[in-house]
From TrEMBL:
The keyword Nucleotide-binding applies. One of its GO terms (cellular component) is membrane. InterPro entries: UPS_plant (IPR030189), Ureide_permease (IPR009834). One of its GO terms (molecular function) is allantoin:proton symporter activity. This is Ureide permease 1-like. It comes from the Eukaryota. It is a multi-pass membrane protein. Belongs to the plant ureide permease (TC 2.A.7.19) family. The chain crosses the membrane at residues 12-30, 42-61, 81-98, 105-130, 142-162, 222-244, 264-289, 310-329, 335-356, 368-388.
Length: 397
């Protein structure tokens, strides 16, 4: 079994996880904006997300030396370690529900703000829990100022969303007033503008066309509704890493004497089993009983829906490997420091601007808030990674 034992390797894994975890939400958002039902997309995503965990377990979890205290993946599947398995599966449960919630939040709030607020809540709550679970191996005088930066980012993220939403409302109201006047010439001009292939991002025509093509209709919905989904998903995300920490390190001493701790690869496998069960189960339910005003669908319609399926499958792989690398780095350097990957909004915001035209032609106030939010994230990432410690592995005892 391959283990990461040095701080440099752990940080490299965190950086890779940061890139992967910041990219997969952009792919799912792209499909929703093109009209693909979120239920179809999440079913595809769930399959390859689980496949990534299997690949990691059968490669990193099997290669190299195996010992009675640190067994390889297949050996550990036969051991009596169900208390730890339960924690791993609880972690997968809350992560799956959180990911499913954010899929709808991206439509209502936007990709960048959703990731900022949910990730910041994750750090504020989850990192604090991991610090104490990890027996304080991270430097508190560095770690908690980083947590404070994430908390400030939550407030700035909410302010960015409110300001940008007001900008969009003003643009859409402008075009609606023209249409209500009954001016046929103005109406014709508007319709011809919408038919232009290359509509400039951020314009009122761009926003109106987006509302017509996307799967989830959001115009006129309450800002608080979208933010409530984001806060709920953030609370779910804040629990999955501490649960995984308990699964791999057994801080509450629930395993029987002589039973080795779950290695990170076995824990991640069970974690992903829970993810795929919840993800597939809930989305099959949502096919026939949809939420947020979506149309109903069926398993047959899902099977034959190949529109953008390759992007959904890629998103699942990116998320699966991103989570696996985060846990591998956390086991070596402390899960509190590994929460630095929650700076994934840095990557998501880049995709949001490049792919979706978020914040194009917004007000100066929105731009200032956005810059402040991203700057606070950069500071927070640097501080959290600087707090990384070194876990004494089981075989060192």
């Amino acid at each position: 079994m391959y283990l990461v034992e040095d701080k440099g390797g752990a940080i490299a894994l965190m950086i890779a996880a940061l890139c992967f975890l910041g990219t997969w939400p952009a792919l799912l958002t792209l499909l929703e904006r093109k009209g693909r039902l979120p239920q179809h997309t999440y079913l595809d995503y769930s399959i390859t997300n689980f496949l990534a965990a299997v690949i990691i377990a059968l490669t990193f979890g099997q290669i190299g030396h195996s010992s009675p205290t640190v067994p390889n993946f297949l050996t550990q599947l036969r051991q009596n370690n169900w208390p730890s398995v339960a924690f791993a599966m609880i972690g997968g449960l809350v992560l799956s529900i959180g990911n499913l919630s954010t899929q709808y939040a991206w439509a209502f709030v936007g990709l960048s703000v959703t990731e900022v607020v949910s990730s910041s809540i994750t750090v504020v709550v989850g990192t604090t829990m991991n610090y104490f679970l990890d027996d304080r191996i991270n430097r508190a005088e560095i770690l908690f100022p980083g947590v404070g930066c994430f908390l400030i980012a939550v407030c700035l993220g909410s302010a960015v969303h409110a300001s940008n939403a007001n900008d969009n409302i003003a643009k859409l109201d402008s075009i609606n007033k023209k249409c209500l006047k009954g001016d046929e010439e103005a109406q014709s001009k508007v319709n011809s503008q919408i038919k232009i292939a290359e509509i400039r991002p951020g314009t009122r025509e761009f926003l109106q066309q987006l509302e017509m093509t996307r799967a989830i209709k959001v115009h006129g919905r309450s800002i608080l509704f979208g933010l409530s989904i984001v806060i709920f998903s953030g609370l779910c995300f804040s629990l999955f890493s501490p649960a995984f920490n308990l699964a791999t390190n057994d801080q509450w001493h629930l395993l029987k004497e002589g039973v080795p701790h779950l290695v990170v690869y076995t824990a991640f496998f069970y974690f992903s089993v829970s993810c795929v069960i919840v993800g597939i189960g809930l989305n099959i339910l949502f096919l026939y009983h949809p939420i947020c005003g979506l149309p109903s669908s069926s398993l047959k319609a899902y099977v034959y829906d190949w529109n953008g399926r390759h992007w959904a499958l890629l998103a699942g792989l990116l998320c699966g490997f991103g989570n696996g690398f985060q846990f591998m780095g956390g086991q070596a350097a402390g899960y509190a420091a590994a929460d630095a990957v929650q700076a994934l909004p840095l990557v998501s915001t880049i995709w949001a601007v490049l792919l979706f035209g978020e914040y194009h032609r917004s007000s100066r106030k929105t731009y200032m808030l956005l810059i402040s939010m991203l700057f606070m994230f950069i500071v927070a990432v640097a501080v959290l990674m600087a707090s990384a410690g070194h876990r004494k592995l089981v075989q060192d005892h």
